[in-house]
Amino acid sequence: MSEAKTDKPIKKRKIKLDEELLAYRGVWVFVESERSHVHPVSWELMGQGRRLADQLGVELCGVVMGAPGPDLEAQCQAAFAYGADRCYRIASPVLAEYRNVPFTRALTDLVNAHKPEILLLGATTLGRDLAGSVATTLKTGLTADCTELAIDPEDRCLLSTRPTFGGSLLCTIVTLNYRPQMATVRHRVMPMPDPQPERTGLIVDFEAGLIETDIVTKVLEFIPDDQRDKPQLPYAEIVVSGGKGLGKAENFKHVWDLAKVLGGEVGASRAAIHAGWISADRQVGQTGKTVRPALYIAAGISGAIQHRVGMEGADCIIAINNDPNAPIFDFAHYAIVGDCNQVLPALGRTFAGYLAHQGS
Amino acid sequence: MHIVVCIKQVPDSAQIRVHPVTNTIMRQGVPAIINPYDLFAIEAALALKDQFGGKVTVLTMGPPQAEPALKKALSFGCDEAVLVTDKLFAGADTLATSYVLASAIKTLHQETPVDLVFTGKQTIDGDTAQVGPGIAKRLELELLTYVSRIVSVDQAANSIRVERRAEGGVQVLETRLPALITMLEGSNEIRFGSAPDMFRAARAEVRVWDRNAAGIEDIKKVGLKGSPTIVSRVFVPSPRAQKAQQIEFDAANPEAATQALLDKVLVEIPKVKKQLDQTRDNKRASRTAGERHE
Amino acid sequence: MTQNIEKFDVIVVGAGPAGNAAAYTLAKAGKKVLQLERGEYPGSKNVQGAILYADALEKIIPDFRDSAPLERTVIEQRMWVMEDESYVGTTFRSDRFNQMPGNRYTIIRARFDKWFSEQVQKAGALVICEMTVIALLRDAAGKVIGVEVDREDGKIYADTVILADGVNSLVASRAGLRDDIKPAAVALAVKETIFLPKETVEARFNLKGSEGVVIEMLGSISQGMAGTAFLYTNKDSISLGIGCMLSDMKAQNTTPAELLEKLKQHPSVAPLIAGGETREYAAHLIPEGGYHALPELYGEGWLLVGDSAGFVNAVHREGSNLAMTSGRLAAETLLELGEKGLPSTAANLARYKARLEDSIVLKDLKKYRNIPDTLHSQRQFLSDYPALLNGAAHEFFTVDGQDKATKEKAIFNAFRERRSLLGLLGDAYRLWRATR
Question: Could you say which residues from 100 to 159 on chain A have a Cβ atom under 8 Å away from some Cβ of chain B?
């Protein structure tokens, strides 16, 4: 694929599913939990899965795995609230903590038993570890880090779109003659649906027959991360990001100042990270964090796809750039063509004024 | 100890451009490098060799032009290099790629039993992180992904203990060999090869294997044919239907623009107004708390 | 551990045109050659316009045209003397250049250098990249007997060391074989490679097949500094660059990037590159001190070739041909010594200098030996004359009812105002002297 011609279908695909694969029906979402905590990406996927299932006219199912106990029951109920019609529950002491082999075996057996056409997982360290193993075991297709999922109405195929070539283009990938069609999606790429606590569904228990002595890998210890100093970028409702257009490292202080006024977090483009202006854990984009704030202010960021896929879920994008042709103006809501180092302080004063006087 | 490291030669993605006129990817002139994540895998393997002896074999599937990447790996101190290349491999997705690499590792294993396989956590051009797990499943190796540290290896007990990056923390895992490890970035730093290593690498012959030499049993499982996924479309993302609203900016009076912007946003996007009101409440609350504290 | 790896007949430091020419010639003749390059790959540190002069390469690899990656054969040469909005130019275009074999080609150095290095390796030399020579090894008598590199166990021995490590030649400077280069003896050149569809390049320059155009530019674009600019057509790109003396740029507090930006916006240049995309930006130092700035070219066990010796003809913008020729002559000198069983002493290596004197390298540099000084002290060549010439042309070609005789008089007076008659005559003499 050295000279991929853009914007042209490479070839019209022909689906010819084997007899047995035709029986695969339904959309599944793997509900990822580690130490009783469900990863929010699972609920984001549930919202997405609901849409796909409705389009296909099939059931949306959650897959809940873990040690036996009330947690699993609660996770099933939460899955219903977020849109699931049915939950497959695999309870086993062997699944108390994530390990590749028992999780792969259980999920693979469940797929073979109940045959979904689509299986979605979060693109977390756990989700990627599991998805890659399950797809290889099932010999089916898997598309990683999708930014968009859709159904082709003609042939019911899952269209998985993801950035490619280092984030300079997007490509749509389909799984032809294999089922299930698998995809992973990163945290915060899809919107979080509003839970409907009154929703209910059917819980189906599945016996995976796992025996601890069969499992070679042992978890000796789990050392939780110290959360105190980590930027809470993915969850911030207001993010101010800076890029190379700021000119030099010192000018990044305008970004920090405005974020402080707004009580928001600071983000950055890959170029600013590479320039060493700010630490790598502030990177917003395909290879950094994905954010979905109410307000995203991009200062001196050109808006390459690599950055765009990390922030285009924001409700309001304000872009400031010297270059009137910067690609970021193609998807921002508001554009100011000007020098960030003048605009940012002015924005700070304006917002500070608003925050000081309005309301009571 | 025999360690196999799977690497990939990738275009330096920072330097890839889309041609503005023809809309094609311009890979021409873009330097090819060893996938940066693979360097952590190479170093981890070399560190184990330093400790336990044995040899490190570096393996890649790719076009003949991928040979420099292998030579480079040799110059760091890897002992042997194998390039698996065949016209039939073109167009492979991760499933087909893992089949070829797994077959080659099996062939290497017959020559000298393999104790450990290393890969980087993912490549910078595909970003899938699927090939490592794929190889492990095909060879039924214990899989340890996102490893940030190799704590210890017990050769007598044939076991390895590692730290693995998990969501929200670090798992300390123990398993038996042979295993496949995908290394996390930042876990070590690739060494600067010695002059004799550089000389050896410059003169070394890379073993070039076609599908037969690599021990491929089923050619329906390689290349495009063996790939369940296909790329149906490559495109430049479309701009938002509505272009951004332009706020006139005059450097002489910057606040005029920012005030106009704020007024618009407050009216047009209620969620931002709600969030700003929330910010104000938070600030007030923390100020009051501060006063009380004083 | 101080083991030495092995001994070579010759170590060539650097994989540019000079080093490649030397390494190729020696390896081809069966010598045991090691070539060291500090860059990531051969050519990674090399920057050039770039024009390939067939003659120099032909003497090293006679059948290079069969496999070398050549862009276009130069069939047209333009000379532009520029003012801010105009230029006065000459054009020489001849279909005879189309009759093979070609004399000058445009090339893209990244591709060309890769090819050249492959030829060196095929000839049998051992080429190692990412290895930097940090010192020369000497015996008790002070003769150079090898190099030390920046890696563990990095002492490597050889009968002779050829330094082809470019304009900065850190090795030579550090070893005290030559002085650090002076800003007044070096030009800083920048260039961009601007990509356009092949058809666009051909339409804009009236080209077909593999024909190519060269435009040399001087005048207001260098803002009065000693410098020139160039435009070369490649297959599907244009190389556009400008170079000025480093000392001038320091004095004027300007950067080459600014100069290049202005050049791109010049109304005569802008339409030629419109719609193209810059994919490569490179800057490079060029030794332009000329004959008077040449360092010692050889000594006990060592030789200097190419840019590291300062072999650049700034007037004709020739460097790579002199580099290749000097590399070949250095190699041939060593081959001659080898045949006669003579060691690489300074006395024996003097034959290298003699070969240079007898070749284009020193003959041309000698001919233009006073040009750098002339341009430095006599700024009118770069500022007044371009302005006057363009003013004259504008006057002459504007049809406004004025008769031609009056126009000619006005033009002459304009020259007189800026420069006295004596000054004009003096300039002509100075220029003649400098090129004599």
Answer: 100-101, 104, 124-126, 128-129, 131-133, 135-137, 139-145, 159
